[in-house]
Amino acid sequence: MTQEISRLPVSELTALSISVLEAHGLSAVDAKDASEILVLADLFGLSTHGVSRLVSYTDRLRLGGINAEPNLKVDALAPALLRIDADNGVGPLVGARAVRAAIKAAEQTGVALALVHGSNHFGPVAPYCYLAAQAGFATIIASNATLSITPWGGKETRLGNNPIGFGVPRPDGDPVILDMALSVAARAKIRSAAKAGESIPMGWATDAEGRPTSNAAEALKGFLLPVGGHKGYGLAIMVDLFAGLLSGASYLTRVSSWQDNPDQPQNLGHFFLVVDTKRLGDSDWLIERMSDFSAIVHDTQPAVPGSAVQLPGEREFMRMKAQIAEGVDIPSDLLHELGTLANRRT
Amino acid sequence: MTQEISRLPVSELTALSISVLEAHGLSAVDAKDASEILVLADLFGLSTHGVSRLVSYTDRLRLGGINAEPNLKVDALAPALLRIDADNGVGPLVGARAVRAAIKAAEQTGVALALVHGSNHFGPVAPYCYLAAQAGFATIIASNATLSITPWGGKETRLGNNPIGFGVPRPDGDPVILDMALSVAARAKIRSAAKAGESIPMGWATDAEGRPTSNAAEALKGFLLPVGGHKGYGLAIMVDLFAGLLSGASYLTRVSSWQDNPDQPQNLGHFFLVVDTKRLGDSDWLIERMSDFSAIVHDTQPAVPGSAVQLPGEREFMRMKAQIAEGVDIPSDLLHELGTLANRRT
Questions:
Q1: B64 touches chain A (CB under 8 A)
Q2: pTM of the full predicted structure?
Q3: Residue of B178, B250, B278 to mutate, testing the A interface (most A Cβ within 10 Å of its Cβ)
């Protein structure tokens, strides 16, 4: 089955996303802030976390599971430490405001951390790292998530596939951005293999009993395995502690599933650390060091002759430039659905 | 070949470590601070990063590769952002002072980051996370390191197996601490397999041409593979950017090898982020949440009946308690060597 793809200018996709959110009760400015994040995700090629998410977001907005008119409360617990009550707002709106609040604090203190509770799925991490990098800030950003992983040695999903991202700005070019979830492979890949009757590599997933399996159908009944085994498990736990527990949000099994309970608040938590690189040295200092770093990586002898050794994020920036120039690719049926959602009134 | 093991009280091991460092020119207070970190490493069972490191540290102190009397310079670039010039001091001394400086700043600002340059191998990450947790601080701590990994898709070692650690305090018990390097397996494990003529699992390492191999002997000529493939590679890059590049230290191939050039400064860099959890809520609030979190993880159904599902760091704390009660296990030949080093005068 091949999917029909439509291509449209970035500005049109942004306008469509804004219309969808406004049609579901968001103010113009809130719809714009949230849409900036989602469209950046599509530009980076992270389409599973871009405007496609508007379908579930608006479903939950209609059901009252997400608050269309949140009153975000920023509490400065200390000069460099903010706690933000997201009032159950749309995730990408919350994230956009939180990273901005952290940057504002860090302009005074050099470094600041915003811990967010009462939030929802905030899309991918990369767009937040990108926006902060454009302002000269290095970032560590993370969120907890709906359950999909079993604690290491267990056979029950009690942990989210919690994403974490890092960004370092480069004043004369693209920042270096790593945005990763903590499973070896996405569930979607296992689903494709099961459909095609193919096996999956050992190490991607377990069966329902928690035993390693290469059988894709059995794996779908089981659990995603974390990257690096106990190391990825450990990272998922630490993200949940920082973004969930310390922020005052839910964590582990206390996180409500947006799929099973779309009408309930999830109370997800996020972590936004920003570091003002302008305090570390002037622009020339950072440009020189980043250029040197980049050259050393790029000059590595490739294992496969002619292939490129890349820095994290390079593929995404290439995709972004191409899509800004040529238009963004969106499945036609999704585009149709978004058009319907934009004309709907809650 | 079985190794003869000696067991001695913690206080004796600490005194021995202090004597070794004093015999190589460190002041009493510097020797004590550095030894606290190394002995904690042994207590946690991380013996490859404990007092065994004194052999190479003192070798370099004698050769002038490490400065026995560093004058650490702490520069407050902003209220929450410190840059520390370690003046080529012994790593664990530098680390102990840096985490303390970060905590002092964070007492005012809630969150603080210390970026360190001009340093050396600082032992494992866990002891720093532990000391900060005892004072109520959550931590993200990382360091760059001597080269051992090839950038993803490459076939040259141009990146360190950079360790990163996270800690969250628990006022009524052991903190949760994750301390990980970014390779799938340690080189020592591959060396053992090669000696025994055994194969290694695919995914641990490549041969010299950067091709995946299960042949341990070929793997020794090749490269360690990062956890999660491109994800672990990405993490190693981000740690190098934060701890090395942003701190003003060396990075990638600019890091001098302590093995090849023991008489040269390495100019390694570290990253110490501390968050004052006492600003987030009172002790009861954190105790309640950490107990709940811990219970949810521990109550996970185990994949193997009767086995325990654990939080990161639990194994290390069990080992610590046992060794505090019964004494620390140290290979007898290492103990003999340390005795010789303690009686040596530079």
A1: no
A2: 0.96
A3: B178
